[in-house]
Amino acid sequence: MPLLKSWIVSANTPDTDFPLNNLPYGVFSTDDTDDDDPHCGIAIGDQILDVTYLEQEGIIGVGEDFVFDVPFWNIFMEEGPKAWAVFRAEITDLLREGGNPLLREDPDLRAAALIPMERAVLHMPFAVAEYTDFYAGRHHATNVGTMFRGPENALPPNWLHIPIGYNGRASSVIVSNTDVRRPLGQLKPHGTDTPVFAACRRFDFELEMGAIVGQPSEGMVSVADADAMIFGYVLLNDWSARDIQAWEYQPLGPFQAKATATTISPWIVTAAALEPFRTSTPAREVPLLPYLREPGPMLYDIALEVALQPEGAAKETVISRTNYKEMYYSAAQQLCHHTTSGCPMQVGDLLGSGTISGPQKPNRGSLLELSWGGKEPLTLDSGETRSFVEDGDTVTLRGAALGEGYRIGFGSAVGRVLPAPDVPDWAK
Ligand code: CA
Prior knowledge:
Elements lengths: L24 E5 L9 E6 L2 E4 H6 L17 H5 L2 H15 L5 H4 L2 H7 E3 L4 E3 L7 E4 L3 H12 L15 E3 L5 E3 L4 E2 L2 E4 L8 E4 L3 E2 L2 E7 L9 H7 E9 L1 E2 H7 L13 E3 L4 E2 H4 L3 E2 L19 E2 L2 E7 L7 E7 L7 H8 L11 E3 L14 H4 L7 E2 L5 E2 L7 E9 L4 E12 L10
Parallel strand pairs: 6-22, 8-16, 9-26
Antiparallel strand pairs: 1-2, 1-5, 2-3, 3-4, 6-7, 10-11, 12-15, 13-14, 13-22, 14-16, 14-17, 18-19, 20-21, 20-25, 23-24, 25-26
């Protein structure tokens, strides 16, 4: 698939995250227009195409009713895969070189419908119905299992058979550039026998991809049908309180350790844009049960990195580089497994992939792994060291599928960590 050329020049440069091949969906506002309510928009080069405005003006339309008069893409998602494809073709034609001249040749319409990205504030792109997080990265599960249980018991006996997950909290999913406050919680400091209620001391990030469910389900769905239900993907940082987690996780899994915040990138990169980058999950060590077998490649080749910048530091340090294709289970397999209980899935459900670590140390997707539980602190470019995230640190996730002369970029998922709140007197 070559670069699709747009008449918007900035969309044709090899370093833009948002060429015409991408067309990711977001929600934005500006404070210098008559209408400062958040609108639905599509990133194209260094501009945002205001689709709420274009729908109001009758220039584009999806189905019978307005779908973009709300500050989220859920109503559009409900329209289903056929409508998604028709709309994408219509927008592509509006923006491509030699396509529909309606916007290209009307300076007033162009000025009203194209907003420079630098003037926009980005919001949550969809309303999160429910949030589930998985544990589907083999290198991550092996690393964490080795630290917690020793190398002989690193992978739990079910791990090669089931995409393990837990039901998380939709209420604390936040968009990039929202600050994250270090949590308080019950934890048992290392080397002591007594739990305390205190600020988390081992706060961490987890580099993940989030899959967005775009169609509802009733009853069990196959892996192939699950794949078709997935609308798109975002970068996802599953902030994790390791000391709270270590004390609380047995026997029911993570709870408060994972409930503080989950940061996502602001642009939904559609499954359609990622289609040329499909790749297979790795070879199976033990065969999967038939219901979980994939009929085709359902992972994606997406290069990922994590950067950390301490408060006051001149620049960030890239501390990890890995790829989504390292996962053992695809989002389609996870979604299929999620429905086996009969659990209905909803439009706007968010599925975290699990931490994406690669085979080598520089490919690890969390500080827990990078510093090996704090035993091998990481040295940043500034000379500072890190075992876990400190107050004032900014953690940035980035990702892109790399084509010939273009990239399908995700933008970034950025979060700065603020100090924990004081422990209230009545809790002391
Ligand atoms: Ca996670």
